[in-house]
Specification:
Chain A is an all-alpha fold. Chain A is built from 9 helices and no strands. Chain A has 2 domains: 54 residues, Orthogonal Bundle (Arc Repressor Mutant, subunit A); 132 residues, Tetracycline Repressor, domain 2 (Orthogonal Bundle). Chains A, B: Keywords: DNA-binding, Transcription, Transcription regulation.
Chain lengths: 197, 197
C-alpha cells in the first residue's frame, strides 16, 4: 500500500521551498541582485515559476525569506544571559559581524538594505522580522542588566542598542572600514563604558 | 568697448555648473534617482548634454557633486572648538541629523549611499570627500580633547567617532526609527559617558 502512495505533499513543499531559497541566494551571490530573475531562480531550483509566485509576491520577498533563513540559522535572535553582560554582548555582536561578512549573506543582505529604500512594505517587514528581533533581544538583555544593577537603570535602551549595532552597520553600509569580530569587541568595550553605572 | 565684450567665460561656466547641480537635486527629489537622466538634467539646467559630459563621467558623479555642494554649505566639515566638547559634538551631530532629514538632501544622499554598493570608484570618492572629512574633523576635535585631558587618552578614536555617527546612519539607512536633533543629542550624551575619563 505504501508504495502506491504519492510523495507527502508537505514534505515536497518544504523541499521546494528550501531549493528556491538556496537558488535565490546562490544566484544573487553569483550575478548580483539586479540580474537575478524569478525565472532563473525557478530554473535553478527545478520548480515552475508559478510555484514561486504562489508563495511570494516578488523577487525581493523571495530574497528576504532566503536571508531570513540564513540569519535565523546563525543567530536565532536571542542573546545569552550568562551573568557577564559584556561577554554576552560580544557574543551577539560578533555573530552580527560574522553575518555581515559572510559571503553567502553579504550580497543578498546588502541588496535588501537597498530595496527597502524604495519599498515601504519591504521596509516594514525588514524592521519587523530582520532587525527588530535582534534589537529587541538585545534590549531585553540590557533590561535584565538594569534590574541586576549592572548598568544604569535610567539608560534609554533604544539609544543604547544603537550604540552597539550602529557602528557595525555604519562600516558595512557606508564602507568606511572593514567589519570584523575585533571591531565588534572594541565597540562593546566602549559602549559598556557608556552604560555602566 | 566693454559692451562689445562677450560674457566672462569663467562666470558662464560657474553659472552652468550651479544650474546643473541644482537641476540634478531637483529632478532626483521629484522623480527619484533611477528616473533621472543626464538629458533631463541638461534640459532643466538649460545646457547641452555635452556640457555635462565634459565635466562629469556619469549621472552618479553629477549627483555626488550636487550633494557635496549642499553638504559643504551646511556644515563645512569642521567641528567647533569652544572648550565644551559635549556641546561641540552636539552641534556637529545635530547638523548631520538636519542634513539627513532635509528633503532636498534625503533622496539624493540616499541614492548615492546605494550607488556606492555597486560602484567601487564612487565608494572611494564617498569615503574621501563625503564622509571622510566629517569623520576626520570629529576625530581632530576628540584628539584635542584627549590632549586637554577631557577624555581618555587611550581611546581608539576610529571606534569613538563611529559611536557618534553610527547610530544616526543606522536609523537613517535601515529606517529603524526617525532621525532627529533630539536623538542626536541623546547619542552624544551617551557616547560622552563612554569617552570621559
Amino acid at each position: 500500500m505504501s508504495e502506491a502512495r504519492g510523495p507527502d505533499p508537505t514534505r515536497r513543499s518544504e523541499r521546494s521551498r528550501t531549493a528556491i531559497l538556496s537558488a535565490a541566494i546562490e544566484l544573487v551571490t553569483e550575478s548580483g541582485y539586479a540580474k537575478t530573475s524569478i525565472e532563473a531562480i525557478a530554473a535553478r531550483a527545478g520548480v515552475g515559476k508559478q510555484t514561486i509566485y504562489r508563495w511570494w509576491p516578488s523577487k525581493a520577498a523571495v530574497v528576504f525569506d532566503a536571508v531570513l533563513d540564513l540569519t535565523k540559522g546563525q543567530q536565532g535572535f536571542s542573546v545569552l544571559e550568562t551573568g557577564d553582560l559584556k561577554e554576552d554582548l560580544k557574543q551577539v555582536l560578533r555573530a552580527t559581524a560574522e553575518e555581515l561578512t559572510n559571503p553567502r549573506m553579504d550580497v543578498s543582505f546588502r541588496a535588501l538594505a537597498l530595496e527597502i529604500q524604495y519599498d515601504a512594505n519591504l521596509a516594514s517587514h525588514w524592521r519587523e522580522k530582520m532587525l527588530g528581533p535582534a534589537l529587541d533581544a538585545t534590549k531585553d538583555r540590557l533590561r535584565s542588566a538594569q534590574h541586576s544593577g549592572e548598568i544604569d537603570a535610567d539608560l534609554d535602551l533604544d539609544v543604547a542598542v544603537e550604540l552597539l549595532y550602529g557602528p557595525l552597520y555604519h562600516r558595512w553600509l557606508l564602507q568606511t572600514a572593514p567589519v570584523s569580530v575585533e571591531h565588534a569587541d572594541a565597540v562593546v568595550d566602549l559602549a559598556m563604558r557608556a552604560m555602566s553605572r
